[in-house]
Design brief:
Elements: H1 8-26, E1 74-84, E2 90-100, E3 105-112, E4 115-121, H2 123-141, E5 157-166, E6 174-188, E7 191-198, H3 204-209, E8 222-226, H4 228-237, H5 240-255
Antiparallel strand pairs: 1-2, 2-3, 3-4, 4-5, 5-6, 6-7, 7-8
């Protein structure tokens, strides 16, 4: 049987131990109310239309990919999401929007049960995530969300991500570069939420040296829920402008401001050489 990160008993004890600290952090974020979804009855059925967001010009590479996980995440904004509680229901968690310069990726981090998870994506996958959230907001307003659609959790597709996790926010030793996030929506208590799901993934570090599958550490199965307002927060914070500004701020903080190159011009002589 696969060894999941932490046992159930440890998870329960740890969740109780850290509940006070987690709740304290949530006090600074106003609780998001569930969205009301009243479907208007109409005889005309409208087919769902999908749209793809055109990619903007790729940002020039500013960071080497060597020594991938030696630096910490750099935070540049805050938001919130809902995560499942250990014994049912949902709990709002504070989100930190981050960049991970060593992998040229951006995304978010938040507490999940008794652990802390970071999910970051490259430029292309990040744009697919925010584009999917925009599609969800449009489908919500146009009453295209279907309560009976059992596959609605994956209606907006999938994106690749790098996941890193651990017991504490500053201590996340486990990671996978091959995580896949499934994007869609799900009705909970008659309210639709944008959903981000990730199946369990093995830790690349322990998997590389393990002699047996029991020696491999696995992540939890993740399931995030977002209201319309929380989606807007993600879309606003994960724009190219804010992500690239965060990269530039990181570079200045790490390496200092870019020095202007010195320009050297030789003065031209007014004398004209005689040509024999």
């Amino acid at each position: 049987m696969k060894r999941v990160f932490g046992t159930v008993a440890v998870l329960f004890a740890a969740s109780l131990f850290f509940s006070c600290a987690s709740n304290k952090g949530n006090d600074s974020v106003e609780a998001e109310e569930a969205d009301v979804y009243e479907l208007q009855v109409s005889e005309n059925k409208t087919e769902k239309k999908s749209s793809k967001e055109k990619q903007n010009k790729k940002r020039k590479n500013s960071f080497a990919l060597g020594d991938m996980f030696s630096s910490k995440y750099s935070e540049f904004g805050e938001g919130s999401v809902y995560t499942p509680k250990a014994f049912g229901g949902r709990k709002q968690e504070l989100v930190s929007f981050v960049i991970y310069p060593k992998t040229e990726s951006a995304g978010f981090g938040s507490s999940y049960m008794a652990s802390y998870y970071y999910l970051t994506m490259d430029d292309q996958n990040r744009k697919i995530l925010t584009s999917s959230m925009n599609r969800y907001l449009n489908d919500f307003e146009e009453k295209k969300l279907d309560r009976s659609n059992k596959k609605s959790y994956k209606v907006y597709g999938k994106v690749k991500a790098i996941v890193r996790w651990g017991t504490f926010k500053a201590n996340n030793p486990y990671y996978s570069q091959d995580a896949v996030l499934t994007l869609g929506y799900k009705f909970e208590d008659n309210s639709p939420y944008f959903s981000i799901q990730m199946e369990q993934v093995p830790d690349d570090g322990t998997a590389a040296v393990a002699k047996d599958v029991h020696d491999v550490v696995f992540s939890m199965r993740l399931n995030y829920f977002l209201t319309k307002n929380q989606c807007r927060g993600f879309i606003d914070n994960l724009t190219d402008e804010k992500v690239y500004d965060a990269y530039n701020a990181y570079e200045i903080d790490t390496y200092g401001a870019t020095e202007v190159e010195d320009v050297y011009f030789e003065e031209e002589s007014d004398e004209v050489e005689d040509v024999e």
